[in-house]
Amino acid sequence: MCKPSTSAPAKRTQGMNWISQHKRLAIYLRDGLACAYCGAGVEAGTKFTLDHLMPYSLGGSNKETNLVTCCLSCNSARGNRDVKAFVTAVAAYTQQDASSILAGIRNRIRRVLPLKAAKEMVAKRGSCAKVLAELS
Fold this sequence. Notes:
Elements: H1 21-30, E1 48-52, E2 67-71, H2 72-78, H3 83-94, H4 98-110, H5 115-125, H6 128-135
Helix pairs in contact: 1-5
């Protein structure tokens, strides 16, 4: 007879190194080195993060189809909000069309990641941050 488990389910945590440097860079490159929401680009010195379309805290995965490039401001502002609700708010603030932003996100996540190029760039420069610093 099996005994029921008495331990609590493991807590999902991200930690500091939840994604490799080259995969992070590949997502930034796939997304054109710009925030999926407001469009801020690397050339303006924008600090990039990755945003989970379905929030990790709500069960979203770390797969590249659930991740988009996001500026630190947008990522901080979004929190756990639904993507559509957040995009509507960003569209009003940036005077963009919400449906265009959502279409751009759908287009981004369908693209193939340039993993080979990202691996080469990180190997040559040492980290994703150093690659971005050279590009800005």
